[in-house]
């Protein structure tokens, strides 16, 4: 699934190292290293399931570069603490997938033949 | 013999009328587009009168000599041909444009006449573009050929409309929208009414094709007298947006407008919409999962993040500005909460971090203010004039939001300055890419106006001087070096409007003077 770039201001949430590695903030250092290596191997082999990770804003694309960066970020205790705060909220994947407030009161009602109405065959 | 002499006398009178048109009303500048357009109108009127007079008198002469209807028919044909040469728009509009004869349309339209009196060059290009748009496919070669006809000539309304339509032919809808929207920025002296109408019609079609019927309604209200198709579309727009329009009125407008078959489905949709209005189901209440999480969250930061996610997933629900400030205030409470402080202190010890919990909280606060300001900017929230207690997250966030807006205007001004520097270094013989520079002006104006809208009056006052200098420089350069009066006036008019809105009398007087010099 293609994912759009994160909204400005949400990079820390969407690119959170814990989400990239698929771990909770309580994960130990050993767990981080193990999971990181496992993901790198999976990405190298081309496992489809490793190509995306779950975030509160829906699935995002995962790359080997992102995994390496996430591991490096979590090795620094101060940086890790900041990321822990941002990784506190992660609803179950099913809830994230639901379009919140999916009703659209201003549903557009496009008219495909609008240009033809003026006699123009192309817009 | 006496009849022949009378005919000759009448023809001579008409020729004299053509050669020496009645002087126009007093005009400040005889070389102004208006004066030239008036002189051309007078010439064409006199030529038309001559053709008709010759036709009537020759008809009388032929009848006097016992000629039949076939001779009169030949005469009528010849006069019809003469009228088409005098008023090429008749043949161009009804025959050549529907046939898609791009080059022929351009050649014949270059003869001038109605409706391109105030922009003959641009008008010929616009007519050729209209012919191109009748084809199922526009080749790049032809688009470039039309563009070459506009380049190197002073930009006026019709030329600008042609450039916009050509951008649309290329599929560059954003540029087309910007250029066609700006046609009305041109003074009526330099913009034929037909060009303005065509620009508006394209915008209406564009809005209708994306389902923005409110925009269709708005466009028809502020333009010149709408065409029959525009009237039909406007009625449909009113109906589709819930206004009361009778079925009879809609059907009458559909019958009057051309391309009835193309419009039939739209008419049917509009007629059906009447039933939809009466049976509109009530909207389902908004269920925001993130709001639920925020209210029942296990920790303050979970509640704040849930609100943040909810805001991003559904930014238009409720009152976005109020929801955003609720989010900011929730983060403020979260950062001040003892539970987060305790949690961080515990984790600092557990991980043996070299920063204290207080330092981390300060770092978090700084990052959050950046993120929240970026979030507000990404969702175009007008929070620039909001206030918060000194040192609060809200105050910090609003300050950074304003800085972001100012930075956008500053970057635009810098980019303009660099382009101007290159332009000034060019030699005089170099072509002035007027449409490209006009597009830059429009982009800069849009960025400034958007920043002013989001940032409020005080930001507008700070941002204007940053842009004013470069735009003024661009206008003066275009005017002094390339004689682009229409281009320069468009910029001066915008600067005047802004200077007056900000009660900057000194600047306003200078722009008034610059504009007056053009008449």
Overview of the molecule:
The complex is a heterodimer of chains A (123) and B (519). Chain A is mainly α and 123 residues long. Chain A has helices at 11-14, 17-21, 29-45, 64-75, 77-86, 93-97, 114-117, and strands at 52-53, 60-61. Chain A has 7 helices and 2 strands. Chain A has a two-stranded antiparallel sheet with strand order 1-2. Chain A is elongated. Chain B has 519 residues and is an all-alpha fold. Chain B has helices at 2-19, 33-64, 69-86, 89-99, 102-109, 120-133, 140-150, 157-170, 173-181, 193-209, 213-222, 228-240, 247-256, 260-278, 289-295, 300-313, 320-336, 338-351, 357-378, 393-425, 434-455, 457-482, 485-501, 505-516. The model of chain B is unreliable at 277-289 (pLDDT under 50). At the A-B interface, helix 1, helix 5 and helix 7 of A face helix 10, helix 12, helix 14, helix 15 and helix 16 of B.
Mean pLDDT rating of chain A: 78
- Taken in chain order, the helices and strands of chain A follow as HHHEEHHHH
The major pleated sheet of chain B works out as: none
The total count of strands of chain B amounts to: 0
CATH class of chain A: Mainly Alpha
Structural class of chain A: mainly alpha
Distinct helical segment count of chain A: 7
- First and last CA, distance of chain A: 31 Å
Give a quick rundown of the structure.
The complex is a heterodimer of chains A (123) and B (519). Chain A has 123 residues and is mainly alpha-helical.
What are the key terms here?
heterodimer; A: mainly alpha; Helix Hairpins; 7 helices; 46% helix; B: 519 residues; 4 domains; 75% helix; elongated
């Amino acid at each position: 699934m293609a994912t759009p770039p994160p909204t400005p201001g949400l990079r820390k949430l969407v690119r959170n190292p814990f989400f990239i590695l698929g771990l909770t903030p309580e994960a130990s250092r050993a767990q981080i290293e193990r999971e990181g290596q496992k993901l790198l191997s999976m990405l190298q082999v081309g496992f489809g399931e490793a190509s995306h990770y779950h975030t509160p804003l829906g699935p995002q694309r995962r790359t080997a570069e992102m995994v390496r960066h996430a591991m490096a970020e979590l090795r620094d205790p101060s940086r890790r603490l900041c990321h822990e705060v941002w990784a506190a909220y992660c609803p179950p994947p099913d809830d994230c997938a639901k379009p919140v407030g999916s009703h659209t009161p201003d549903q557009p009602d496009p008219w495909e033949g609008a240009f033809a109405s003026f006699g123009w065959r192309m817009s | 013999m006496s009849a022949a002499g009378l005919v000759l006398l009448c023809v001579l009178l008409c020729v004299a009328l053509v050669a020496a048109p009645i002087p126009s009303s007093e005009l400040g500048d005889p070389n102004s587009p208006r004066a030239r357009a008036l002189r051309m109108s007078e010439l064409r009127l006199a030529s038309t009168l001559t053709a008709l007079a010759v036709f009537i008198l020759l008809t009388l002469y032929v009848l006097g000599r016992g000629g039949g209807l076939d001779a009169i028919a030949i005469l009528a044909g010849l006069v019809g041909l003469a009228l088409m040469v005098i008023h090429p728009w008749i043949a161009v509009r009804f025959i050549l444009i529907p046939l898609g004869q791009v080059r022929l349309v351009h050649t014949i339209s270059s003869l001038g006449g109605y409706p391109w009196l105030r922009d003959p060059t641009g008008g010929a290009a616009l007519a050729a573009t209209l012919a191109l748009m009748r084809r199922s496919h526009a080749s790049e070669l032809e688009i470039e050929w039309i563009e070459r006809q506009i380049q190197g000539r002073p930009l006026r309304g019709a030329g600008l409309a042609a450039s916009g339509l050509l951008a649309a032919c290329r599929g560059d809808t954003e540029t087309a929208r910007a250029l066609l929207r700006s046609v009305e920025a041109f003074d009526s002296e330099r913009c034929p009414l037909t060009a303005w109408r065509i620009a508006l019609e394209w915008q209406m079609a564009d809005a209708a094709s994306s389902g923005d019927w409110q925009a269709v309604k708005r466009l028809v209200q502020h333009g010149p007298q709408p065409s029959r198709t525009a009237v039909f579309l406007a009625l449909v727009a009113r109906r589709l947006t819930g206004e009361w329009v009778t079925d009879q009125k809609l059907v009458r407008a559909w019958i009057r407008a051309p391309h009835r078959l193309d419009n039939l489905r739209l008419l049917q949709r509009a007629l059906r919409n009447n039933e939809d209005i009466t049976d509109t189901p009530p909207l389902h209440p908004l269920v925001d999962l993130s709001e639920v999480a925020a209210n029942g969250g296990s920790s303050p930061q979970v509640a704040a993040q849930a609100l943040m996610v909810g805001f991003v997933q559904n930014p238009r629900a409720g009152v976005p500005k109020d929801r955003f400030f609720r989010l900011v205030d929730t983060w403020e409470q979260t950062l001040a909460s003892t539970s987060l402080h305790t949690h961080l202190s515990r984790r600092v010890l557990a991980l043996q971090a070299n920063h204290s919990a207080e330092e981390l909280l300060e770092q978090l606060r700084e990052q959050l203010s950046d993120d929240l300001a970026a979030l507000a900017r990404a969702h175009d929230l007008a929070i620039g004039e909001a206030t918060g207690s000194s040192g609060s997250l809200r105050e910090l966030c609003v300050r950074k939001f304003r800085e972001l807006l100012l930075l956008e205007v500053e970057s635009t001004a810098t980019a303009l300055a660099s382009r101007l520097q290159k332009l000034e270094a060019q030699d005089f013989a170099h072509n002035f890419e007027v449409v490209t520079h006009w597009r830059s002006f429009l982009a800069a104006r849009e960025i400034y106006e958007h920043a002013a809208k989001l940032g409020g009056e005080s930001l507008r006052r700070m941002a204007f001087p940053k842009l004013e200098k470069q735009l003024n420089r661009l206008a003066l350069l275009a005017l002094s070096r390339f004689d682009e009066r229409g281009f320069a006036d468009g910029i001066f008019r915008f600067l005047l409007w802004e200077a007056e809105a900000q009660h900057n009398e000194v600047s306003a007087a200078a722009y008034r003077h610059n504009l007056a010099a053009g008449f």
